[in-house]
Input
Amino acid sequence: MKNLFIAGFLMLLFSAVSCNVQTDKKQPLAASSGNDVEVFYFHMTTRCVTCKTIEAEARKNIEMLYPEQFKSGKISFTALNIEEPAGQITGQRLGVNSQALLIVKGDQKFNITNEGFLYAVAKPDKFRDVIKEKVDPLIK
Amino acid sequence: MEFLTNLLDSSSMPWLTAILLGLMTAISPCPLATNITAIGFISKDLEDRNRVFYNGLFYTLGRAISYTLIPLIIFIGADQFKFSGFFQRYGEKIIGPLLLIIGVFMLNIIRINFPGLSGLTSKMETRKSWRFIDALLLGMVFALAFCPYSGVLYFGMLVPMTVTSASGLYLPVLFAIATGIPVIIVAWVLAYTVSGIGGVYNKIKVFELWFRRVIAVVFIIVGLYYIFRIYL
Output
């Protein structure tokens, strides 16, 4: 029994360290479009209730707060699975390899993942305010 | 959860933030499942009340070791993003099959005898101190089973607070104690309340074999829960 626990622990720890060493490549941040605001939500294949709520709330808020800009393509919302090739490529470009909620414009990048996990379920109004606070200066 | 979020918002003290993050982690689905499994594991020694309680403490100490080791490795120089990405991706993928294997071994469905090692193994299992190490190792392994929500609380909030200076390394210990609080409380109740009821001790002795089987089934069910969540 003890050996099983030790094996499990070491397997996780050493794999993490070796994974860390193998993939140490810097990727440029430059987004595809410099003047548009892009909101990216990266998720895993396995998704919790909070993870799904963050995507739904963020998408809804972007569409509601900026309806004209959303229609014209000045602001976009994209949800990507970080475990699939498309998500991995975009994730590498933006320096992300786990779940994340990012607001990007050119070289500017705001990571509001923590706020998403704290507020999307418990305080959706506060989550909306955080999005508004970050996007408003970028969209003007 | 909303209450804890409100407290977290108003907290300006790192030690309080660490405890609140730990409590939020403790009641999130994945750590809750591993904690329930841990309670099953540590309650198998119910005939020795002190050992049950100490097992609960050693389990929490195991969690503290893992939770402190990760920021320490990051503090030394590992890349935080890649490290956290790995655990959030693979932590819960490994824990499901591992629980299933442990459960099957506990049920004695499969017996593997390594030549020359069986005597040594049985000696180890009869030694009392190894049981504490079992609980400690269980805590260390279970702490690494990060789910999306607990992963963000730990890697997104606690680790950045911790790695800013070496003096922050006490924070994961507080976080770990908070995540282990449900196990410590249940261990205490089992040790000093349930096992103290007249006649329970004898009944436990009689049903010990069944008790172990039930615990093995708990491991298998929780293992299957993870496997179904992730692979199916």
